[in-house]
Amino acid sequence: MRRRHEASGGTNRELIKQLILGGPEDQEIPPGRQFLYEIISNKRTGFDVDKWDYINRDSYFLGLNNKLDCQRQLAMLRVLPCGQGRNLLVIRDKQVLEYIQLLVARRVNHYVGYQHIKVIGFEKLLGDALQAGRSFLESQPVESVNPDARRYLLEASGSVETLCWLTDARLELLLTEHCGPTARHLMQRLVTRKMYSLVATARLALKDPEDKRKYESAIKKARAFSEDWNRRNPQASDYSTIAEFRKIDYGSGLNHPLDEVFAYSKRGSAGQRCSEKDLLFPDLLLSAIHVSIVRLYERSPGQGRQRQEAEREFLSGLAALGFMKTVE
After folding, report:
1. In angstroms, rounded to a whole number, what is the distance separating the alpha carbons of residues 262 and 252?
2. Running DSSP on this structure, what letter comes out for residue 195?
3. How far apart are the C-alpha atoms of 94 and 96, rounded to whole Å?
4. One of this protein's GO BP terms (predicted)?
5. Is the model's pLDDT at 279 over the cut of 90?
6. Which of 22, 25, 296, 315 suits a disulfide with 199, CB 3.0-4.6 Å?
7. Average pLDDT of the chain, as a whole number
8. Which are the contacts of 202, defined by CB distance < 8 A and separation ≥ 6?
9. Could you read off the pLDDT of 227-237 as tens digits, one per residue?
10. Domain 2-114+255-285, CATH number (from 1.10.3210.10, 3.10.450.50, 3.40.30.10, 3.90.480.20)
11. What are the sequence ranges of the domains in the chain?
């Protein structure tokens, strides 16, 4: 890596990009060098310095006691052969518990922070404001709309330039002043913290890997149910609700998070950590491998009967897919 870095004059942007993304996008990673791409973004286990950094930082600001000693973790990592010609980043066997604690901390952060009911409520509110603003801009003559609003919200909304230019303050200004009355009203709600209120929540958990196929079918139908619900409840209707599908897992999708973890013993030999003996203790902490949550929000307070009917229809539709009502 050092030779490649020096040969490029000290700046190898493609290599830096690959290290951040966890490997090249258009070719397979050479097995003997796989460990290089597991330092920053470990797609195999999720045990990487990026996760250590944001878990520690976000846990602090969320008021959670999820401190991880990064220096200790780095000191015990080794690069060892793990079969099939692969050289992988391997943790010490006594690190497995700390790895599990990291997975649990990540999951807790998602539930109480990143995917909290209020966070999602404000996220959907902002999404509706953007949609209303874009619809307004598309309906107006080009010469009559603000050039920045047209450029950054319509023509180049996904460009790197837009991501760098469109700060929170600029986005608020464009949606409030230049994108029509609906976007202005929604942004005023956002600023005054009048978010969409939660009506109901339903959840389904995968606890046994043997049920994976049945679970996959259920969440696929739940996604389709949510999309159909939102088509039938547009923003412009008198009483409007919006359904949102979310997942909370350990970063390994529907797979057990220890499936791809290798650990070495005091003697130096490396092996996988997913035997029945190894899983006796972790399973006390890793309860449900994957949890799917569908939430229903109302865009504006309706009459009691409207809310009750929406809640009943929403929960009965998801109950048919195996989802259970839950309280948040």
Report:
1. 15
2. P
3. 5
4. dGTP catabolic process
5. no
6. 296
7. 89
8. 293, 294, 314, 315, 318, 319, 323, 324, 325, 326
9. 999 999 988 77
10. 1.10.3210.10
11. 2-114+255-285, 120-191, 196-253+289-326
What confidence tens digit (pLDDT) does each residue in 115-137 have?
999 999 999 999 999 999 999 99
| DSSP string for 140-186 | S-GGGS-HHHHIIIIITTTSHHHHHH--HHHHHHHHHHSSHHHHHHH
For residue 238, give the amino acid letter: D
β-bridge pairing 87-92 and 78-81: antiparallel
Q: Which segments of the chain are extended strands (E)?
A: 78-81, 87-92, 197-206, 241-249, 262-264, 270-272, 290-298, 324-326
Question: What are the residues facing 271 on neighbouring strands?
Answer: 263
- Report yes or no on whether pTM surpasses 0.70: yes
Which among 156, 146, 157 has a CA at the least distance from the CA of 179?
A: 146
Whether 327 contacts 201, CB under 8 Å: yes
Q: How confident is the model at residue 39 (pLDDT cuts 50, 70, 90)?
A: very high
